Amino acid sequence: MISNIDMAARTADFLLKVKAVKLDNEHPFTWASGRKSPIYCDNRVTLSYPDIRTFIRQSFVDIIREAWGDVDLVAGVATGGIAQGALVAQELGKPFAYVRSEQKSHGLTNQIEGEVHEGQSVVVVEDLVSTGKSSLIAVRALREKGCIVKGMVAIFTYGLRVAEENFAKENVPLHTLTAYDTLVQVAKERDYIRHEDLESLAAWRLDPERWSDDHMNA
Questions:
Q1: Domain assignment present for 217
Q2: Which single residue of 73, 80, 110, 146 has CA 20 to 30 Å from 187?
Q3: Can you give the pTM of this predicted structure?
Q4: Starting from the edge strand earliest in sequence, which strands make up the sheet with 121-129, in order?
Q5: Which three-class secondary structure state does DSSP give residue 127?
Q6: How far apart are CA 144 and CA 215, in angstroms?
Q7: Is residue 215 included in any domain, yes or no?
Q8: Taking all residues of the chain, what is their mean pLDDT, rounded to a whole number?
Q9: How large is the average pLDDT for residues 82-97?
Q10: Which domain holds residue 46?
Q11: 91-121 pLDDT, tens per residue?
Q12: In 57-74, which positions are buried (b, 16+ CB within 10 angstroms) versus exposed (e)?
């Protein structure tokens, strides 16, 4: 198993190379919430690259074994965590399920797809964490079914204070392959961004809402 520092840097490099993550101060991206951001993240792109896909899967497997040992079930968060979660479950030889953000409005009205049972130990797989709100909805749904959620793994976190507070409040350990600060550092070293952009990128990380407001009014 490689060190956490090496894993974080390699993951960040992969994400930047395949444009799963884009950084652009001059032309901010608009999130679904309407907020402006210098970062856009779509880690599903990594699934198109076998070497990167395998690296992510194996890194997750190593973390799970190191942090929690044997678990009964792997659960992916819809939709970004479904494919990665299934790959991890296959490698571990464990059952797989996935969790929606809410119950379906038709059919069996399931929120959880797949078999889960009371008392099962579960690790949750997510692609990225922003505030943690949608990720923790999945955790609560599993707990309502009587599952014992050991923790969560994700490819990327923005490293926002609100996410740290939300995960601590729900008592959910979170392990990510890389994070925003590492991504920005690697982007600087690889000349993906200019040195003069670093201050603005750091300002967004500290206060995304204020950064967004400033850029919407600019």
A1: no
A2: 80
A3: 0.93
A4: 112-113, 96-99, 73-77, 121-129, 148-157, 174-179
A5: strand
A6: 41
A7: no
A8: 93
A9: 98
A10: 4-210
A11: 999 999 999 987 654 555 689 999 999 999 9
A12: bebbbebbeeebeebbbb
Average pLDDT of the segment spanning 32-50: 91
The token pair that represents 104 in the structure block:
């379906």
For tokens 């494919």, name the residue: 83
Answer yes or no: is 44 within a domain: yes
Half-sphere exposure (Cβ direction) of 169: Cα atoms closer than 13 Å: 12
- Residue % of the chain over a pLDDT of 90: 78
Helix 50-68 vs helix 4-17: crossing angle, to nearest 10: 150
Strand, helix or coil for residue 113: strand
Q: Could you give the number of structural domains in the chain?
A: 1
Within-domain flag for 216: no
Which pLDDT value is given to residue 100? 93
CATH of the domain at 97: 3.40.50.2020
